Amino acid sequence: MKFYEEPAKKIPVREFDVVIAGGGTAGVIAAIASARQGAKTALIEAKGYTGGIVTEGGTALHSFFNLWKAFPGVEKRQVVKGIPQELVDRLVERGGCTGHVETATFYDYDSVCTAIDTEIYKLVTHEMLAEAGVHLFLNTLLAGAIVEGDTIRGVLAESRAGREAFYAKAFVDCTGYGDLSAYAGAKFTEPNDHAVANAIGVGGVDVDRFNEFCKGQSLAQEAFGVRSGEPNKLVRVGFEQGSFPEEIQKEVKRIGMSFITTTLHDGYFMFIKLNYKMDVSPTDRDAVVKAELELRERMEAAVKILRKIPGCEKAFMARTSPSLAIRRGRCIECDYDISLSDIVDGVHFEDDIMSYAFHDCAPRLKVKDGGTYGIPYKALRVKGISNLLAAGMLITSDWNAHMSTRNTVSCFGQGQAAGTAAALCAAKSLGTRDLPYADLKKALLAADVYLEN
Fold first, then answer.
1. Res 239: pLDDT
2. Which residue intervals of 12-171 are DSSP H helices?
3. pLDDT of residue 220
4. Residue 243 has pLDDT above 70, yes or no
5. What secondary structure, in 3-state letters, does 298-354 show?
6. 3-state secondary structure of 50
7. Which strands make up the sheet holding 388-390, listed edge to edge?
8. Is the pTM higher than 0.85?
9. What is the DSSP string of 212-242?
């Protein structure tokens, strides 16, 4: 390989208290939390909108509640509140969310369905960031880290405005891929143990006729809420297994097609997901180019399959994500690695920053007795770096444990804790390990975060 030696040059510096990389599921909540603590907060996002996997990889937000319906006699509890619940409330007001409607079937997987409209979600998150006073940098690519010893002094970013340095006292990596952690020299692995995906919005469908077909299959899912302004309408629909002719079943399996979807609108499926297992990590740019093409070909194939189903004869592709979505890129080493036993046994820690109860492998794996487990603050502290926290799908090494912590509402809660902690650290010029947990707990409780007694 040939090399070009780039001449040194001076680049402009912006100064903040907290810099958050990644304006997706965790990053939006982290930035709002940080700014509300009084920190001058920068949020750097490569796309032209906020929301990330919530808007690109659906199908619903899992889950604000414990799995009470799977355990007769167990009390219903909302275990994630705070800024995430405020976001849901704002979305509901704008017609962009069903709210927390109970599942009518398949409730040993999730007791509620919280479905969103992807486009309204992008708008409302942007508005909330602006109201909080977050300095938002969209269409801006994180390009490197400025590190001295075990401390990050700044990050490098590039946009059409040029190359810039963002200095701060505390940093949060919410990139999903773990980009900031990797740039800063943190230890990580690349398990490549999940499929990548792209989800399409599909128009021209009859939701109720499709549901009648689903009822003839096994494991059909239903939830009822407001759809196109009318109450008690289907908002979650689909099935896990079907009785298609063998040639169609083979094609469904080949393209990794899921028939579970949600909707807030008549004639529309918000998410139909196509999955593809890459041979290498999705951090491999050149391999991702091929994967993008493969997934777009699978989208076209999915619409052709849908047209064979009653109610979907006139289906068409109405929306795609701008790039493939991941469930995991890099797995960043943190001070604590959450285990599957921590989750299913309902373990709580002396430094809990949230409670959570959903597992994406339910009913095979779930928190015992319809309870919750805790995510500790130490699970967000990036090992070997004094002022960096990680939140979202980039923590938790074990696949089975990751199938809980990577989910959207878990990422919300992690984001609120990480943003709050970063702001407190910046205000007192403390490293992440020097922040008294009592101070963090007090701030989280004041912001309506639920912590198990």
1. 80
2. 25-36, 53-56, 82-93, 118-132
3. 73
4. no
5. HHHHHHHHHCCCCCCCCCEEEEECCCCECCCCCEECECCCCCHHHHHCCCCCCCEEE
6. coil
7. 135-137, 41-44, 18-21, 170-173, 388-390
8. yes
9. HHHHTSBS-EEEEEEETTEEEEEEEEE-SB-
